[in-house]
Amino acid sequence: MLERLKKLLRNLAIYGMGDAATSVVSLLLLPVYTRFLSPSDYGVIAMLITIEAVAKVVFRWGVDTAFMRLYYDCADTAARQQLASTITIFLLAVNGLLLVAGAACSSWISWWLFDTTRYWPLIVLTILNTFVTGFYFIPMHVLRIGEQSGQFVSLSFGRSAGTLVMRLVLVVWAGMGVLGVVVADIAVTTVFTIVLARWFAPLLRPVFSRAILRDALGFGLPRIPHSLASQVIGLADKYFLNAYGTLRDVGLYSIGATFGLAPKLLLSAFEYAWTPFFLGAMRERDVTRTYSVVSTYVMSLLVPLVATVGAVASDAIRLTTKAQFHAAAVVTPWIALSVMCQGVYILGSIGIVITKRTRMYPLATGCAAAVGLLANAILVPRYGLMGAAWSNVIAYGTLTAVTVGVSWRLFPIPYEWGRLGRITLGGFAGYAAATMLISPATPPIVGLVLRAVVTIAVYVTVMFATGFFHPGEIRTFKELGRRVMQRRIVPTPTGGGTREQQAEVVEEPAVSDDFPDRIG
């Protein structure tokens, strides 16, 4: 089990570096984009993303999750090829018809969302792009299952970097506005599809199995209502803002949400590594203890990250955008809080997947979607941007509570509730101290640094003061610190020592066994 945990951490680091590099570049380009795109332009882009998100769910039919789960049941290469080929043929046939239907309805969709038909070409291109990318999960899942995180991140980063470059060229240099954003996505998808063929082709053969399709749909179809409800949870805020406000409101909300989603750098990287980890370990002895400890450590990183993002939101947005976008900062802390709820959901819902009780997903997401719609209908007309942000938190909080409750009944995990409570207390204390002790009039660059430092310092202080760390963990941290210091202070021998003798001088002490024993 310890070896599996090492692989989890290694893959998490690799996935995290790829996501972090892309996201940091995206944030750094915000000052550029906001000079060439107005808040209303961002509103149009946000609504196109809404179309893409819904189309992605429909085009996948839930078989993306089924593919990963059934892949572990395949005995040999031929069985895996039959699985991949069956799903690919099914998606080509069914989604081809849906693509034609979507293109035919594009004018109506444009009128419904924008009160004009002028955006129908953008809608057609968005649906076409989503159709093509709907096949990417097959080779990308295989890379994840095979723990080929380096290749996975290289491909993902290459695609994201290509998109950023193309958008710069078409939006900034060519002045194409929103059209440039959509055309950039199409261009990169075309190139990436050709590149990905190297990994996709070996998985495909002229074979089709009704039995495999039946198993895949049996596992995946219950997730379609769940996935659609998930999109309602995530997108209802923008729809209601568009209905009761303006595209400018949607654009401001999207900018604020962009910063609020920053904790997903950690969460997305973890999710990529987490699913193969918990599925691969599910039959091992004492695995629930491992799941519990990993959950504690993930939350110990996610909570202070969320608190820090919320604390520095105003400074970050003032620093990177024009004055017309500064009002977006009010929603950022609430969106970050929603991300934390999603983190708890990812950690706490694994019992549903392990026990193959995916029919429980629609129950949880259906409840959350209904609560979210009600909250948006009540709060957005009255409170605008803030109403949408509050509704987002309410919806994701409901999703987390219901899903984790159901999953725990199916597959009980002895979570460390006391330590999780200390993490929550530390995060809240750090955020409160940073927002209350530092004046809003502080220059943005100074305020950003000070608030980040105060948030983390208070969080760490609370962790030590409340006894969060076990003695074995503290000893491990001290030994790691000694290892670092030894590398700095031990002089390199000179003169007659052999290479082996020199190596002995800087030999590192072994890390205490107390720490691995707790998680293995």
Q: What is the strand and helix layout of this fold?
A:
Elements: H1 2-28, H2 30-36, H3 39-60, H4 63-71, H5 77-104, H6 106-114, H7 120-133, H8 137-145, H9 149-173, H10 177-200, H11 210-220, H12 223-244, H13 247-260, H14 264-281, H15 287-320, H16 332-348, H17 350-354, H18 361-383, H19 385-410, H20 417-437, H21 444-465, H22 471-489, H23 499-505, H24 514-519
As a percent range, the share of helical residues equals over 70%
- Counting DSSP H or I runs of 4 or more residues, the number of helices is 24
Structural class: mainly alpha
Please compute the radius of gyration using only Cα atoms.
24 Å
DSSP strand count: 0
| Average pLDDT taken over every residue | 84
What characterizes the major β-sheet? none
Q: What are the secondary-structure elements, in order, as H or E?
A: HHHHHHHHHHHHHHHHHHHHHHHH
Distance between the termini: 5 Å
Low-confidence stretches: 490-520
Strand content: under 5%
